[in-house]
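Question (not urgent): is this output format expected?
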Amino acid sequence: MKIEGYNRIPEVTKELEYFKTHQVVIGFFGKRESRLLTIVGANEFGATIKPKNGEWLWIPTKDCPKGKGPKDIAGLFIPKGHRVACINDHGKLVVYFYLSKLVQIPARPFIRQAYLANKRKYTQLVRQYIAKVLAGEATGKQLLSRLGVACTADIAMSSIKLKHPKNRPATIERKGSDNPLVDTGELQRQVKFMIVPI
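Got this back:
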């Protein structure tokens, strides 16, 4: 009696070898000094911000035109004895900036929280896909891609759900909401994954 069948061992071995040479990296990507990475790092780990050039940090109020700095606003002045920068709008003082010697940003570890809340799910996903790889129903790249998609979605959701520590009143006033990590949605759109060689 002759037994016939299909030998999947070479294909499965190739897919398992893929895991030795590739990994999925998940998070925020950019140049080392990018504004996005600065914001992510300051929120994930906390930060103390001090003025680089000058005595004060200039913190915009809700009345300050979006995207404008102190040099962009004609007639801006600091009233003696106050820590604000104003303009005179037809006899009425309008505060455009609060002045501060430093700003403390508390840690809001949304990336770490996403991992801790979902690590069992990730383990289960990997187990399911390894079984599919062994059965010839999936590739190593598909496993890493699926894991990347799941992790990026969880990090974005973690940033939306995070409510504490709350923003300062001045930040809430300027943003118009009290969700600490949501403003324009850019942070949530920028979480990505890449499959890269090890």
